[in-house]
Amino acid sequence: MRLFFTVDARVVKRALGVVAGALVLASLPWLWDTAVRLRYGVKPGVTLAGQAVGWLLPEELDRRLDDMGRELDRPARDAKEDATTGRVIPEAEGRELDRAATARKLLAAPPFARVEPVFTRLLPAVTRLHYRAIYQGPSARPLVAFAINVDWGEEVLPALLDRLEQEKVRATFFVTGRWAQKFPELVRRMHERGHEVANHGWDHAHARQLGDPELRALIAKNADLLEQLTGRRPTLFAPPYGEVDARIVRIAAEEGHYTTMWSVDTIDWQRPPAEIIVDRVERKLGPGAIVLMHPTQPTLEALPRLVALVRQRSLTPVTVGQMVAALEEEGQASAHTSARP
């Protein structure tokens, strides 16, 4: 026997409407999430260094970039001397994923774009140049630096600082720690006027006569004091008496200092007439010159003529640190420095 059922079309329609409504309600969160991601997130199909990052919202992207950064970041490697062979192992740049810049780039990318990460360069603190005594800067650039060694001369220094200010010249003052301890205000004044304050050792000791621990202390103790006085740790070391050898250079490098010398010596500590100081500089002055001076009255008198001479030769006065930076930039360390003085 067959049973026949009749169904009211209105009931069917109502039931279908209920089902459809339920489906719509169930899909609303997904639709909303999709709309939000399309509006505020990374567009679909976008990849970063071959990894899919499409649809990620900013906060999700930040977490992903942190994870990727741990894989992609690479610390810089300092140059160092091999204790066995004595050869210098070269430095290497590092890199760090710039999370913020990479995120901006990804969020602005169109669908299915292939995006490369943005990295920040990490420079090594110690380079091969740290293991060479630097006598001058690059000869291809019209730069001149005044290096002023200070272990005495406090009676002349205020006037010397005023004269440099008048001439609009920034110099590098290599200061001993024992002098800086006695005259901290003069050290601060050097720094405040835009000059470079550098390391001349704690006292004017003969570096070659010191053992390794004493030599290290000669440099580090003064660096600590000068950093305390100026807020900036020195990175340049001028050995007292100009005594330099491979060991001195190595220990200075290990303390984060370049060892800097000079190419033009005024011999002004003998206090010759200003005319002789000018003549000594004039005979040797050229691009990349580092001119050694001291705070003496003849130097003060000669300074305007020295600056005029520099500018007559179309040279620009810079600090020794800027000269060293120019060497680093141009990679001319081997042509302008000596590894075994």
Automatic annotation (TrEMBL):
Record-annotated NodB homology domain positions? 142-318
Task: Classify the source by domain of life.
Answer: Bacteria
Cite the CDD domains for this sequence: CE4_BsYlxY_like (cd10950)
Q: Name one Pfam family in it.
A: Polysacc_deac_1
SUPFAM superfamilies (UniProt xref): Glycoside hydrolase/deacetylase
Q: Which InterPro entries match?
A: Glyco_hydro/deAcase_b/a-brl, NODB_dom, Polysacc_deacetylase_ArnD
Name of the protein in its database record = Polysaccharide deacetylase family protein
